[in-house]
Structures are given as C-alpha cells and as structure tokens.
Amino acid sequence: MQNFSKIKTLSNWIYWILSLCIVIIPVYYLSFWFLINNTDFPLDAITTGATPIEPRTLPTEILAAGYLSSIFPLTVLVFVLLSLRKIFQLYKKGIVFSLEHVALFKKTAKLLVFWVLVSIAYESVKSVLFSLENPPGEKVLSIGFGSDEVTVILVAAFVYVIAWVMDEGRALAEENEMTI
C-alpha cells in the first residue's frame, strides 16, 4: 500500500508538470516566430541542416506563415500531453488498470507517430520559409528523418505494446473476479 501512495504522489507531480507544459509549449511556439527578429540569437543557428541563410530580419508575412505552419505539430503535441495528463490523472485517483488507460495509451502512441509526420512537414516548411528570400539557386527545401524521429516512433511502439499488455492484464483480472 505504501507503493500505491507513492504512485499517487508521483502521478500528481507529473500531472502538474504536464499541465504546465500544456501552457508553456504554445507560448514557446508563439514566441519563437514573433520574437525571432528581435533577438540576438542568429537565425542560421535555429535552422536545421546546412541552409545557406544570410543574417537578416524576416518579413511579417513569413513570420505569420511560419507560425501558422507550427500550429499543426503544436496541436498534435498538446493532444499528446493532454492524453498523458489524463493517464496520470487516473493514477492520481488510484485507478491503475482500466479500459480507459488502454484507450489512452493507444491514443498516445498514435498521436506520437502522427506528431513525427507533422513535425517532418513543419521542418520542411520552415526550411523553405527561412530560405525564401535567398537569391535564386540558394532556396532550400529540406526534408529530414533522423534519430529523433526514430526515437519517438520507437517510444510510440513501446507505448502501444504497453497498452496491449495492460489490456490483456485487465482482461485476466476481470476473468479472475468472475470465477471467484
């Protein structure tokens, strides 16, 4: 029972951390695009790959397009965080194995894979936007799939398998309750 109390306490902390992330991450995305011209941080340091960009300020239209393109991965990421928060909310309440957990784990796994796909598209759009005002022949379309994306897909696969195992355990527990 002491471990169960620790699970509730830790889940409560994780729940609040996830809640904080749900607020902070959208603010970060918004700040990234609207403060990029007003920071000393060099623009070429935040692009991926060897994009040939000369230091300059980006026009408002490009900033707006960049922010609009960031809404898709941001939205999926927020849904991932909301799904994880619901999982820890159930743990916080002392509900450990339920059908809702299984559904939330499966949903989280699918959202993580979708987030990878949308993030690849977002990074590609970003590479075009950052090089849009480059001279002809120096505009860049960068499409990347690297170790970060592979890692997230592996995590999604693990989460999906955990959901599957939890569902089997839940079914066995229900079966045992009926036979006693």
Automatic annotation (TrEMBL):
Transmembrane residue ranges: 12-36, 62-84, 111-130, 150-166
Protein's name according to its UniProt entry: DUF2975 domain-containing protein
One Pfam family from the record: DUF2975
Keyword annotations of the record: Membrane, Transmembrane, Transmembrane helix
Species the sequence originates in: Sneathiella marina
Domain of life of the native organism: Bacteria
InterPro entries in alphabetical order: DUF2975 (IPR021354)
